[in-house]
Task: inverse folding
């Protein structure tokens, strides 16, 4: 089994504690551009997720990636979580 | 309670379980399974609770379609494991599953060690994913065995107390001790268990503070469920 890169569940407030480490969270998409997505975290913070989102992108998306700073994640894996969550 | 929630729904990903007669389903993460195989026990248990059927939720990262079966690799963020897959349509299942894992884990490690054995007249909290039997207390984080061997691996006072607690409780739950109205004095307990009186007294104080024993007269103790 491979547990070499476990991703910690975070929200907006916890993200700052995991900067530089792998994290995962679900965000509600507020804006979506070519190279990044802005969304609201589960605790109401505005987060930026850099990377290539899947197309089409649903309202809620889970991202797993590396925390760049306290409000930004560099996504490695995106998972559409649908429109009702 | 977790055992209610885990009626196996057809769209729940699940690892193939051993052939067993376990009635309960335990939510787990791959990390928990990995820690299991490191220990290498023949009877699988997590947090002191026997585990046979499990629920596992994650992402499919590899698919292998064979004639007779389909094997998949499920990655849940804490690791991956080969297993069989059912589809998820409601993504709330994911958050719900991990919350269940957390809850059940905390329940088994924190709350269950405080519970006494369920006997007549005593309200027992429902066991979590556990085939519970016998007179010994399961779920203690320290694996105290039922013999009276006092192992030397406990270092601190607190560890020693916890190590003896199970022995002392077992002694107090003997029919002779339960039947005695006055209970048992700490001297006798110490002598019978071959442990110092001082340690026994500290242990009995601890057990009394947990509500598992009570004092009758001076220095006499009885198990609470008598």
Result:
């Amino acid at each position: 089994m491979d547990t070499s890169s476990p991703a910690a569940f975070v929200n907006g407030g916890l993200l700052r504690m995991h900067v530089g480490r792998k994290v995962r969270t679900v965000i509600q998409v507020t804006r979506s551009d070519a190279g990044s997505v802005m969304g609201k975290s589960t605790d109401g913070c505005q987060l930026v997720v850099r990377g290539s989102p899947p197309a089409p992108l649903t309202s809620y998306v889970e991202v797993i990636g590396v925390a760049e700073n306290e409000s930004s994640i560099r996504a490695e894996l995106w998972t559409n979580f649908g429109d009702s969550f | 309670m977790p055992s209610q929630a885990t009626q196996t729904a057809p769209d729940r990903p699940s690892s193939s379980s051993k052939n067993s007669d376990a009635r309960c389903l335990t939510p787990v993460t791959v990390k928990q399974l990995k820690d299991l195989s490191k220990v290498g026990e023949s009877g699988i248990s997590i947090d002191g609770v026997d585990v046979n059927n499990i629920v596992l939720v994650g992402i499919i990262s590899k698919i292998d379609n064979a004639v007779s079966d389909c094997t998949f690799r499920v990655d849940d963020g804490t690791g991956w494991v080969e297993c069989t897959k059912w589809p998820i349509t409601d993504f709330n299942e994911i958050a719900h599953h991990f919350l269940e894992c957390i809850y059940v884990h905390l329940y088994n490690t924190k709350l269950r060690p405080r519970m006494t054995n369920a006997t007549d007249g005593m309200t027992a909290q429902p066991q979590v994913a556990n085939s519970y039997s016998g007179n010994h207390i399961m779920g203690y984080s320290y694996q105290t065995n039922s013999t009276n061997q006092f192992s030397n691996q406990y270092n601190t006072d607190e560890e020693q107390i916890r190590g003896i607690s199970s022995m002392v409780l077992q002694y107090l739950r003997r029919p002779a001790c339960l039947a005695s109205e006055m209970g048992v004095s700490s001297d006798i307990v110490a002598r019978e268990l071959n442990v110092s009186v001082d340690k026994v007294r500290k242990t009995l104080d601890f057990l009394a503070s947990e509500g598992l024993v009570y004092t009758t007269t001076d220095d006499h103790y009885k198990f609470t469920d008598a």
The longest strand of chain B covers residues 59-65. The first helix of chain B runs from residue 2 to 5. Residues 1-22, 117-125, 129-154 of chain B have pLDDT under 50 and may be disordered.
